[in-house]
């Protein structure tokens, strides 16, 4: 018997995993990578004490994932990455963090079911990075505080609008490299929003989100190449990243400094006007970085 609290196993047989679990009754964290397992493992090894489970590149059928996860009913963190899953059921009363990344066959219905408060009532953190098959999952968990949706290029404006409508406690959201154009982003608690390389994003989306996110302090819209002259006006916004917004007009930046009195950091690069004037003219409390190193 061991006193191990966390174990990481790579390219192991199911028998090896079972032996570690059986010999480690105090185990709280299990990471398994590049292995073939079956859901029957939960019946022959103690999993009920696990607080964190991470499966990367693990091969087994969807129903085996479901069975294995169901045996870990004390989990607070669940990480599935690079697994060929499409419809796995997760219902865990204590789960706070759900990370499903690089699972490129994941279905909308699967994610929608996982995010029902009745299935995972304690959920606070969601990461769906690189789940490129997702189009319109229902992300409506009222307890969500952080949502990472990077490189989910098929997500619709409607799906994102619904997320912000229903997840009123969101403080941070990442939609890097999305294809959204003009979603309604309205969030009373949101403080950090990353939209960089969302190359279809329209001026109106940025102008409106600044009106409807009163506590926003950090906004990244770098590489959003369709932005021309959004209306930057916000009382508490501190950081704005605008590098490589190649169509952005000088008037938009003039308005930014005139209408955002709390600015502390602004980043510009590859704009078609004299960017250095804002370094000379802005308030001493604000740092303007003009990036020519690319």
Structure description:
β9 (192-194), α6 (203-212) and β10 form a beta-alpha-beta unit. This protein starts with 5 loop residues before the first strand and ends with a strand. It has 294 residues and is of the alpha/beta class. The chain is built from 8 helices and 13 strands. The radius of gyration is 22 Å and the shape is elongated. The chain has a 13-stranded parallel sheet. It has helices spanning 14-23, 41-44, 62-70, 108-114, 157-166, 203-212, 250-259, 276-281, and strands at residues 6-10, 29-33, 52-56, 77-81, 97-101, 125-127, 146-148, 172-174, 192-194, 218-220, 239-241, 265-268, 287-290.
Which short descriptors sum up this protein?
alpha/beta; 294 residues; single chain; elongated; 13 strands
Count of beta strands: 13
Q: What order do the SSEs take from the amino end to the carboxyl end, as H and E?
A: EHEHEHEEHEEHEEHEEHEHE
Instruction: State the strand order across the main sheet.
Output: 1-2-3-4-5-6-7-8-9-10-11-12-13
Query: If helices are DSSP runs of H or I spanning 4 or more residues, what is the number of helices?
Result: 8
Query: What would you call the shape?
Result: elongated
Proportion in β-strands: 15-25%
Low-confidence stretches are none
Strand count, sense and barrel status of the largest sheet are:
13 strands, parallel
- In angstroms, what is the radius of gyration? 22 Å
Straight-line distance between termini? 55 Å
Helix content: 10-25%
**From the helix content, strand content and strand pairing, which structural class follows?**
alpha/beta
Mean pLDDT: 93
């Amino acid at each position: 018997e061991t006193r191990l609290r966390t174990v990481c196993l790579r390219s192991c047989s199911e028998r090896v995993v079972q032996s570690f679990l059986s010999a480690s009754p105090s185990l709280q964290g299990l990471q398994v990578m590049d292995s073939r397992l079956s859901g029957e493992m939960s019946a022959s090894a103690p999993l009920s004490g696990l607080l964190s489970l991470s499966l990367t590149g693990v091969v087994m059928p969807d129903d085996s994932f479901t069975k294995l996860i169901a045996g870990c009913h004390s989990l607070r963190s669940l990480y599935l990455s690079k697994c060929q899953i499409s419809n796995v059921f997760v219902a865990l009363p204590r789960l706070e963090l759900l990370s499903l990344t690089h699972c490129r066959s994941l279905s909308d219905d699967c994610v929608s079911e996982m995010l029902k408060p009745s299935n995972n009532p304690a959920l606070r953190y969601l990461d769906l990075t690189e789940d490129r098959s997702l189009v319109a999952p229902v992300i409506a968990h009222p307890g969500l505080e952080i949502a990472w949706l990077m490189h989910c290029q098929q997500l619709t404006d409607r799906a994102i609008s619904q997320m912000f409508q229903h997840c009123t406690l969101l403080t941070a959201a990442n939609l890097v490299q999305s294809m959204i154009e003009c979603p309604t982003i309205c969030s009373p608690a949101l403080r950090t929003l990353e939209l960089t390389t969302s190359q279809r994003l329209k001026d109106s989306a940025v102008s409106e989100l600044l009106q409807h996110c009163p506590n926003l302090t950090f906004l990244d819209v770098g590489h959003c190449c369709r932005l021309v002259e959004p209306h930057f006006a916000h009382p508490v916004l501190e950081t704005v990243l605008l590098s490589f917004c190649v169509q952005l007009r000088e008037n938009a930046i003039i308005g930014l400094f005139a209408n955002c009195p709390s600015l502390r950091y602004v980043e510009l690069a590859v704009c078609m006007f004299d960017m250095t004037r804002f370094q000379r003219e802005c308030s001493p409390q604000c740092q303007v970085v003009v990036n020519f190193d690319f």
